[in-house]
Amino acid sequence: MRTKSKSKLLELKRELEKYQRLYQTKIATLEKRKNSLLKQIENIDSKIQSLQGELDTLQVPLFSRRGKKPRAGRIAKGGVVKKRGGPKGKRLIKPGILKKTMIEILKASRKPLGPKELTDAILKSNIYKKPPERLYTMIGNKLCGPEFKRV
């Protein structure tokens, strides 16, 4: 009777050790996974920070329009406001504003920008309700002008 209980006890001990080993390996793998996930979270956080910084450099304060808005077709401060079809003669943007915005964006950015980056920044700045299709070309042409000659 004693030998039977002793063998049973040994068997139970072996089983306990087996499960303890299993438990330890599970914990180790979960620990590794947790560490890798934490690293991924840190990487994503740093990416978000850098993109936020880039976004801050691209956002440019725009000029507030003072006074009354010019009526369609009349001569306004920046030049003639062009008429456009539609019930209220939808106004296009005044001619001088694009150049001013380009200058502001170029001043605000730390690195020299090409026409593509400038176009993206101008579209983000929302000076156009409906941007013209040739905006990229317009910006490229303006960059060739004397005010934008880069050294």
What is the string of helix and strand elements?
HEEHHH
Number of domains: 2
Q: Report the radius of gyration as a whole number of Å.
A: 34 Å
- Number of helical runs? 4
What is the arithmetic mean of pLDDT?
Answer: 76
**Biggest pleated sheet:** 2 strands, antiparallel
Quote the distance from N terminus to C terminus. 100 Å
- Proportion in helices: 55-70%
Beta-strand proportion: under 5%
Low-confidence stretches: none
Per the principal axes of the C-alpha atoms, what is the gross shape? rod-shaped
Structural class: mainly alpha
Number of strands: 2
Give the strand line-up of the largest sheet.
1-2
Question: Gist?
Answer:
The chain is mainly α and 151 residues long. It has 4 helices and 2 strands. It has helices at 2-58, 95-108, 115-124, 135-143, and strands at 75-76, 79-80.
Explain this structure:
The chain is mostly helical and 151 residues long. It folds into two domains: 51 residues; 56 residues. It is built from four helices and two strands. A two-stranded antiparallel sheet has the order 1-2.
Secondary structure elements and pairings:
Layout: H1 2-58, E1 75-76, E2 79-80, H2 95-108, H3 115-124, H4 135-143
Antiparallel strand pairs: 1-2
Helix pairs in contact: 3-4
Features:
151 residues, 2 strands, 60% helix, rod-shaped, 2 domains
